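Researcher: Here's the sequence for the chain we discussed earlier.
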Amino acid sequence: MTLCLRAFGAYRSDTSSGWRPADYDVRNLVKSLKGEPFKGYTNFKLGGKWYQITANDSGPAYILWSNWAGVRLRDDLKLGKVTLVPVPSSSQTAFGQDTCPVRMATSIATLAPTLAAVGNFLRHKTKQPKAHSEGGTRDPDRIEPTLACNVTDKKLPVVLIDDVKTTGGHLIACARLLRKNGVKVEHVLVAGRAVWEAVPDPYKVSPEDIEAVPTFEDF
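Model: Thanks. This is the structure I predict for it:
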């Protein structure tokens, strides 16, 4: 299968290797979307307009994100109207629970209702340990059984929405389960893509088929 990921930007996973300003900028966008603290501010320009991203007000981050994602849906994916399915956070045990990916999907659908609707089709059966800080798994074979699925509309193609792609294990697990429930899933939009090696331009990240050669680590 194909699961093509597009990211607003990329930043290095290893902070000890020397970050460029762009690494901090993309990381700050993700933190603002998630409502997490960071110092200072970051300015982004999109479509001739400047957006100042801070930790105190996530509004500009969501406007920037939804405008970028809307362009991707309209000009790159060209699927017609789609269902945006938020990837459940580790603590999400209810459909539609307020999480960063749910807010990200909602902001896109609010901006471009002719292009997208939100489908809260996924949740975890029980709260899961976080992969980056609590030893949670990144293996899609182990993640998929933790998910519950309730597809309410199979007519539209699905685009997965998440804040960050690290290994892609959670995204692949979600795509597999949704396909088993009768929907077409071939695309993912994320705000940040964590990479081991710095990319030439963190704001021009090439689309990546994350199902082509998947590798996963538990740590």
